[in-house]
């Protein structure tokens, strides 16, 4: 498919089978991420590929965050929430945890490092789609918790930015997408002067 078709037909696919994904396809997805634009060629992305029992790393991290954020960590409710969190990574055979490691350089703006990694994630989602795989970019408050950094061996300035769950789509038909027309969200500026809504 061409790039325009890939952009318009890619969807978040959460329901996937447990069928293994060939390493060559995972590597293609990782390489696509590395071709994202990044200022000063800092390449601030870091990838952790979780498969098989390796998915427990994320499960334990999610469980720790659930306990750390519970009103009463010793309660049965907190224990149940931790157990539910522990099971989440087993919804897909492969999870790629994507993190940003901002460069320490006087001319590098930290926010732009985040932007580069978000662009890498989009590249990866499009590559997965082009390979016929189902993928979903999962985030949420636990993603950014300090305990997540601990489990993935990241430094204080680093940050996990999401998890790409990968697999063979469980359903043949992807959901239809819908977006506002770009005209509703665009201002064309052809002359100098103040912009108004």
TrEMBL record:
The keyword Flavoprotein applies. Keywords: Flavoprotein, FMN, NAD, NADP, Oxidoreductase. It comes from the Bacteria. InterPro entries: NAD(P)H_nitroreductase (IPR052530), Nitroreductase (IPR029479), Nitroreductase-like (IPR000415), YdjA-like (IPR026021). The keyword Transit peptide does not apply. Its EC number is 1.-.-.-. Residues 7-167 form the Nitroreductase domain. Its cofactor is FMN. It is an enzyme of class 1 (oxidoreductase). Belongs to the nitroreductase family. This is Putative NAD(P)H nitroreductase. It comes from Paenibacillus cookii.
């Amino acid at each position: 498919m061409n790039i325009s078709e890939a952009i318009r037909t890619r969807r978040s696919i959460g329901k996937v089978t447990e069928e293994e994904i060939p390493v060559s396809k995972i590597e293609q997805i990782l390489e696509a991420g590395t071709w994202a634009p990044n200022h000063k060629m800092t390449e601030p992305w870091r990838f952790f590929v979780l498969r098989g029992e390796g998915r427990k790393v994320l499960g334990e991290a999610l469980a720790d965050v659930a306990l750390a954020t519970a009103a009463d960590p010793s309660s049965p409710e907190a224990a149940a929430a931790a157990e539910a969190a522990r099971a989440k990574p087993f919804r897909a055979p492969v999870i790629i945890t994507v993190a940003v490691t901002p460069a320490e350089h006087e001319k590098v703006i930290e926010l732009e490092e985040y932007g580069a990694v978000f662009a890498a994630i989009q590249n990866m989602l499009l590559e997965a789609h082009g390979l016929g795989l189902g993928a979903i970019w999962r985030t949420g408050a636990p993603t950014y918790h300090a305990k997540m950094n601990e489990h993935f061996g990241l430094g204080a300035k680093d940050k996990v930015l999401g998890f790409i769950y990968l697999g063979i789509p469980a359903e043949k038909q992807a959901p239809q997408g819908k977006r506002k027309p770009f005209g509703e969200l665009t201002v064309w500026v052809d002359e100098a002067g103040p912009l108004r809504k």
